[in-house]
Amino acid sequence: MPPKKRKAPAKLQAIAESPVKEDDEPQQAPQVEQNASADAVAQRLKEIDDEVAEHATDLLEAASKIANSIRDEGPIACLRIPKKVREMSVAEFFGLSAEEASGTVLT
Fold first, then answer.
1. Is residue 98 part of a domain?
2. I want to staple 101 with a disulfide (CB 3.0 to 4.6 A). Which of 32, 65, 80, 96 is the partner?
């Protein structure tokens, strides 16, 4: 059995009873504050761009390390495959018919 909800109605009632403040005049920020906030936004965007560029270079470095390790270890892994299997054609390895091996069947 779920617990009884006792606090939610009290909170909703307090919100409903709170007076709503209506202003006839729209509030306008001074021009200086708008310029300052625009500068702050521009500065934050520049920081974000710098972080993205740094992260991208980190990813590229990691990818190049992985590619280099594959290049280094690839021939060694190929040598571990038995010579008979290495010398087989792809069609022979997968047991493909001549039609399938020629690529005329598109399934």
1. yes
2. 96
Q: Does residue 84 lie in a domain region?
A: yes
| Number of H-type helices and E-type strands within the chain | 5, 0
Query: Contact, 86 vs 78, CB < 8 A?
Result: yes
What does the buried/exposed string (b/e) look like for 63-91 if buried means 16 or more CB atoms within 10 Å of the residue's CB?
eeeeeeeeeeeeeeeeeeeeeeeeeeeee
> How many domains, in total, are found in the chain?
1
Place of tokens 């709503």: 20
Whether 25 maps to a domain, the answer reads no
| 92 is a domain residue | yes
The model's pLDDT over 28-73, given as tens digits with 9 standing for 90+, comes to: 655 667 777 888 999 999 999 999 999 999 999 999 999 999 999 9
